[in-house]
Write a structure and sequence with these properties.
The structure holds two protein chains of two kinds. By secondary structure, chain A is an all-alpha fold. Chain A is about 45% helix and about 0% strand. In chain A, α7 (about 150-160) crosses α8 (about 175-190). Classes of the chains: A mainly alpha, B alpha/beta.
Amino acid sequence: MTEVKLPRRDFLKAAGAASAAGAAAATGIAACSPAAETAATAPPAEPEIWLTLNATEAAFVKAVVDTLIPADELTPSGTDVGLATFIDRQLAGGFGNGAKLYRSGPFLPGKPEHGYQLALSPRDFFRAGISEANAWTTKTYGKEFDRLTVEQRNEALTAIETGKAQFNGGFTSNFFFDNFLQLSMEGFFADPMYGGNKNKVAWKMIGFPGLPASYREEVKTYFNKKYDKEPQSIADFS
Amino acid sequence: MVTKLNEVDAVVIGVGMTGAMIAKEFTLAGLTVVGLERGPDRRPREESVLPRIRDELKYVQRLELMQDNSIDTVTFRNNSEQTALPIRRWGAFLPGEGVGGTLNHWGGMHWRYLPTDFRIRSTITERYGAGAIPGDMTIADWPVSYDELEPYYDKFDKMCGVAGKAGNLRGQKIAGGNIFEGARSDEYPTPALKPSGGAVLFTQACNNLGHHPFPAPFGAASQPYKNIYGIQLGACEYCGFCGRNSCEANSKVTAPTHIMPALRDEAKFTLRTNAFVSKLVYDRQAKKVTSVLYTDMNTGEEYEQPAGIVILSGYVFTNSNMLFHSGIGEPYDARTGRGVVGKNYCYQFEATATAFFEDKNLNPFMGSPGDRAVIDDFNGENFDHSGLDFLGGGYIRGGSGAEPPIGGRAVPADVPSWGSEWKKETVRWYYHAVEFQNQGSVYANRANYLDVDPIYKDALGRPLIRLTYNATKNDHAMSRYMLTKIDAIIKEMNPTHYELHPRPLNFTIVPYQSTHNTGGTMMGTTPANSVVNRYQQSWAAHNLFIMGASTFPQQHGYNPTGTVGALAYFASDKIVKDYVKNPGPLVQA
């Protein structure tokens, strides 16, 4: 734990298995950051393994999903419910690599009416977007996104969401945000087998019962009555 | 090198719903049939089973059952002045792929068109005078009437096991059903679904306002049902996963569940999947298609399949594109109005609304699209358009449920889209939303059409098809009017909060709106005004028959599937009875 000469994120990666909280303290991340708070109260962290995200990207993704889904009385943080893992797996797989995406050129600038027109695969789009977002927060706050305070993260993400953050990569910050939010919400509410929605926490939060979803009688017996059942996932039926 | 295969009686291009229907009817009549499907086979016992079928990410978000854009897609622009760009990932509409085609993932709304829809140009002219139809509105009467189609609507209903309640049985109006519908020769094969909480609220409000609400007809059996091919089907489970997904209960109508079990082992039928048809070989002199060329997408090898009868039953875009690539029929020219292939492309114009009822528990995950309630009071010519600034209309539907959580979490528009506040508000409203929709007609306009894209190519190197489409003044005026009706219904329901969603000025390819694309190979009375005749037979090649909503002259205020099915049975009946014995034009030009 004394190899402070290592680039910060390589060090974090190595130290992650031992103690995320200790690592955060050792590298001077503000003690009030949500990640540090959660880590202090959570059970020992599992080793962080990324299929495709590099350390900078992983730190960004964790910080953003913790801002989108902060730990509160309803759920643990985005990272703790598996959203960073979910995003990493999605970007590493078929979706991230542009499966079923028409990728022939020419790549002409489209209007919003045209939908996605970039030459980038989703993986490369997220790579570019993360890089642009970090460049913008560095210009604005002097730091990359994951090193901002909670207040700054909320402020920065709002600027990115509303297109006020200047991106130079051929797409707007709000376009990047929309795609990031969509992927995060997919992870939050998808079946837990994909890595997000750990312990069916999002389903419990809203009262979605999951499987088996056979309601031929219940549609009548629970008419105007809350169907309050412990959710079940695909794994519970496998 | 192209391998030439032995001639068969008929080849079916696209083994979706209509392709499978025709193949089944032809084999029953003793014809040998080869089905060429460019997607994979789909076997319900492997694909549509618990627990894997309850996977919203895979089916609803990642579009597991949809056409692969990387192989073939559509380019799009709002008007002829723009450069069209490819739809790189499906958004507004979702063409399917594989055995069963687009109907595998339909929402099941199963309708007949109004008797007046079939003669819409005549009806409007009779009611409002010859000047009532704007010059650029290229609507046309259908060359077939409701009464002629009725026996085939009925047959299709009975193949499907449709759930619903008749409102016009042999001319007798029945309260609680759709009293505006054309006369039905028989009741629905299975009873209407149980209504969702939202549908009950909607029905009460509509009754208070003097409208005529009824349960939505649904393309799934509400109780166990044996269809006309002897296949035992299950009852709807109200699972909530209908849209974009197949059905593990064998209840929702699809070719793999309702037809393939009675066709797959038929000796006279051969199914070839991953067989991508690139071209019809056209003999202009003989006015016939002699064979079809296809690529086996597993091996890359090319084959030529000769056939006596050619059934083109691809999705709407495939049908027009196949004619363009094969040089069959004169392409439509929007500047001159001449030509027919690609003409009268239409869509569905759906205005929506959401209302929240904090004191009601609506269990949003339960149900099916078929547990909605509907009014038809403002559809087509069911109401007087005198003094209104538009023609057309559509049904209005209301209800709750069938909303899995990634895509179906309505919250008021002023709620933030993330953070603790978003979580609180999502929890607050999740059980309490009712959705409303107007299934708006799109009356054809000369500026909206399909043609060949000059830039982009598919995986076989063929040009993509190009869609030029925007909403018209007429459609926007219609939609605004329908929203005033929805607004009045919602007010009568007394919600905690509600929001109307008017249509954006320009049609946009994202987000999802409707898969009801129509036209491009429209039917009509002469080769000058249409691509096919009333029997869906090509004017240019008498052994070529085209199936699907691509033959609609325009789109009316209903989901197209019921009419697509009726037309397929109408055509196959004529082919089997008359064409096979005496091949040639079934209607003299």
